[in-house]
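# nightly structure sweep
# worker-07 picked up a monomer target from the shared queue
# config: single-sequence mode, recycle default, output format = structure tokens
# input follows
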Amino acid sequence: MVGITETVLRDGHQSLIATRMRTRHMLPAAERLDAIGYRSLEVWGGATFDVCLRYLHEDPWERLRALKRAMPRTPLQMLLRGQNLVGYRHYPDDVVTAFVREAARQGIDIFRVFDALNDARNMAVAIAAVKRAGARAQGTICYTRSPVHTLASFVELGRRLAAMEADELCVKDMGGFLPPGEAGALVRALVKEVGLPVVVHTHSAGGLSTLSCLAAAEAGATAVDGALSPFAGGASQPPTETLVSALGGTPHDPHLDLGALAELADYFRGVLDHYRPLLDVRSLQTDPMILTHQLPGGMLSNLLAQLKEQDAIGRLAEVLAEVPRVRADLGYPPLVTPTSQIVGIQAVLNVLAGGRYRQVTNEVRDYVRGLYGTPPGPVDAELRARVTAESPAIEGRPADRLPPELEKGIAEVRALVPSADTAEALSYVLFPAVYRAYRRRLDRGLTPDVLTTAALGVVAALRAPSSAPAGRGVPPGAGRPSAWALAGRVRQPAPRRWVDAAHGRPRG
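# output follows
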């Protein structure tokens, strides 16, 4: 039997409606979801934590508690970005350990732990914390294709994760370009050479996902990820109902009731109707070109947004040609949060600034210096020399350089909220500015529905023809622009860019 992990409450809506599904639209379906017989329900992590605080005016911890109360039987699962947790930078070990412990205490049973560079060192502390908390650690291999990513290298990473006592492995195809043949070969090799259960997560953007899940099942995968059909396809996962039908009557039959799944799909079809103003038709489309350029759907959306703002949408072809060159210069990182943003924004700069690396973002500099981890392959020698001439590369695990932050954060948040508990302190430590804004809105008595109405008004304005004068050129900021500022992401969120801001459609 092959189990199904249901993603409708996390990656399904992250992929299609920018993570905007509210807890109140999840809970009416919770009892039925819990009764289906899923292997697990992915309900938390990825972009959900930040979006809850930043846009939905919800407490992500209360969402987790509410879902656990409503779904006590099915294991709840989250996506954890290794040393980045649910954020965009490395956090010190005391914060990582405390976050995992608190998430497990409040209801997470399975932690899918990944690192954007497949640097096992950046997953080690999180996996150890998961084990100490008594939860299940799913060590993750980010699938990508390049001259330095081979079947042997993925198997070796699987061995390293097993040595860290991961309970199982996940093959994470965040872009949707894992071919069925490679899916089968990789799962077969991991099962044989590493000996742990293997779960496969993919996206439908390239049109291969259902075929690849079937190949993975036949090769010995323990489980595959699906999303109920209203939140499936395109940038999301393959439809759960399709997977169940395709595997039915075979030795891999998940034994889930298609009638019950149809009832749930009908409910979530109504939920999707509520959020339809947020749905970009591109996110639902199959784009076989992803099999060539390997750009996740969310990355492509953000590139389009940046070029549109610079009145340079006609230069998309140049940017798409530049992305693989930048990726090669940086040693072929997998394109997943945050590396997809780092590569994509530098590619836009290279095209619009009139020369390659005429401007280099702070994030590319940090990446080259090793502050994100060890790149999969060698970094371009000229770029490395230029960056390290100003600031030397670091040695060792990046987080070893970080002083503890938890106690300081607890003291600071309790100056704002004297009754703050560990969970609230962690929200502050992870996103200080976002948390402060969240508390200000709470103190002003703004309700989630008021915020939603305002946000949907912004969406309508965004989709109306612009009356602003056209302008060309690179975004403002000389010397060392911040990639996040250029993308309208974490450090400088701008309300008018709400759809494509911090969590437009990141992969993972």
